[in-house]
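Teaching note: in complex prediction, the entire set of molecules is handled at once rather than each chain in isolation. The prompt given to students was simply: 'Predict the structure of this complex.' The entities are:
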Amino acid sequence: MTADFFHEGQLVGVLTTQPLDRLLDYKAPEGGCWLGAFVEVPLGPRKVLGVVWGAGQGNFDLSKIRSVNRVLEAAPMREEMRNFLGRVADYTLTPMPAMLRLATRAPGLGDAPSMRKVYRLGDAAPERLTEARARVLEVLRDYGGLSFTLGELAEAAGVGTSVVKGLVTQGAVREEDTPRDTPYPALDPDLAGKSLADDQAASAEILREGVRSGRYGTTLLQGVTGSGKTEVYLEAVAECLRQGRQALVLLPEIALTNEFIHRVEARFGMPPAEWHSGVTLTERRRCWRMVGQGAAQLVVGARSALYLPFRDLGLIVVDEEHDTSYKQEDGVVYNARDMAVLRASLNEAQVVLASATPSLESWANVEAGKYRKLELTSRFGAAVMPKMSAIDMRVEDVPSGRWISPSLQAAINDRTQKGEQSLIFLNRRGYAPVTLCRACGHQIGCDHCDARMVEHRFLKRLVCHQCGETKPMPAACPSCGVEGKLAPVGPGVERMAEEVAAVFPESRVTVLSSDLFGSARALKEAIANIAEGGTDIIIGTQLVAKGHNFPLLTLVGVIDADLGLQGSDLRAAERTFQLMRQVAGRAGRAETPGEALLQTYQPEHPVIRAILSGDEEGFWSAEAAARKAAGVPPYGRMAGIVLSSPNVQEVFDLGSEMARRIEPLRRIGAEVYGPAPAPIARIRGRHRVRLLVKADKAAPIQAALAEWVGQFKLPTNLRLTIDIDPQSFY
Ligand code: ADP
Ligand code: ZN
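The expected output is the structure of the full assembly:
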């Protein structure tokens, strides 16, 4: 058994954030340290962050072992968190130092002084009121009771810090010590929520019971957009706060947070703590610390909030649980939804997965009896899922270079005349996905990737959507040199805007595409403008599929419903089904009934038919049967291994060698496919080769993978990434 406390001089094993494959031994510092303590340790000439992970091994010359520099002012990492990081590391085959980095993503954790000086208005009048002094006092008066740091105050007043110091000496400005990181204001779970409809109230009560049980459990909360999922799970949050435990709400997108924060504030009287890339560094550190002290009751955050050091996490809500952005693809490859379930199970906490269109994984877990399912059947208010139908593009008469069918055009005209809004959905940014030379047939590609460059007229450039490389549109074909023959092929949203302007010259049009807005604020303004009726026709990419509320929108026209069905992706059907239903769900949120029209060349395709009929259970059963038959997730295990290097020979050589020496995988009955060029065979100048490993659901795939990969020595420039349960195949 490991002791929980180490006295000065005892050996401790420290996990650091440095890429080493073992714990390092140190002597406990003066005053000793707790197991789990965050510490600063010397490593060569540097000082690095670490956590006391256990007793030291003492395998080295004891006289050479150095002491921990100091214990940081932070709550020690709890056993639950240490277990959690270990389990994620094992599951995703991630080295522990990388896990620790993920769990300490806040700046200045090691900063010693936990107090800082702040400045407020004092009682005395200054002896001599110079212009500079007057400005300082004016700033302090303007901001009422707010306190400033020295630097902030000097800057706000446009004076040197000595001016402020002078005023302090005279008592005109007060200098005070305050804790650097302050607790978050208390939330009140007992403020009145909305009065819930019957099915909402019943679901809320079941979730509350789960929270009260103090045990682990996962619930899938399904209901179309607007059915009140958020209202319902906020009641679970309220119960969690009443129990004195902490709650975490994960959201897929920063863009959603602001509207959401206001709702939380309305429900609980105060805003929650926030954790996402838009939060300042100071605020991040405050959040990290306060969460650890239990001085933040509720965190609303992006996926990495899952690694905050909660003191007692009682509830995790994963909103839009099907969203692919929960799958982190860089660095540590993990799925935040699955890891949320893991963390909750280690801490006797509840999980609520909310979605209008759950993932097949969650659906299957409900089928298997692992998750409970609650369904909100009616939209709050009255409206229902819009009427959905196909426009058969094989019989529509659409001129070349145009994509809006006469049927869709008529429907849009009809809505515009009634003063209602239409959404034209096309999940393609830019002007045209392909630029073709009409003289030689050449298509302009990226110099660094195996991808075509996408024309962005708004930017007046060609852009690679893989690596972000841009270049001006050339006058002559880079291949044959003929001038004036380059032509755009296919539509992007910018090109749709041109067509809409030509077809509906009277209408006001807004294009919503992530790259057309310089800032989150500009996007928010555009969204607010639409909600207020400032536009007739919206042209949008999947940006619009996410939770924005447009009360006047009653028609959704999908330009190319077949788009997502192409390609070899395991989840193509699932994704298309979900995306189409989400987009359609934008129409008719309020009292006005909505309609969705899907332009398609294959109206008999089973996925298109399932979308139109809205037979969700039917779709999932068929999809589940197909995946079961193929032995793929969620009914089998898969891992994607991507080798990449600037040297094409090296990746293929290693890939072939790996495919030959598969004894560790064979032992667990796993199959290996490849090596094959990855679907995108080159990104940023690195050649990519892919192997796929497939195994039974119960097979111990991680250990086998680790042993298999461990056999090979990687050339210096070659990178190997392992993706367990891959979501995308690129
Ligand atoms: P979802 O999360 O399923 O999309 P929301 O919880 O956001 O649904 O609810 C949609 C809208 O309806 C929100 O504006 C919400 O405040 C409102 N709403 C939902 N349920 C109620 C209720 N019982 N009383 C009043 N308003 C409600
Ligand atoms: Zn590129």
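Point out the following to students. The chain has 20 helices and 31 strands. The chain has five domains: 5-102, 115-179, 198-376, 387-428+491-623, 636-724.
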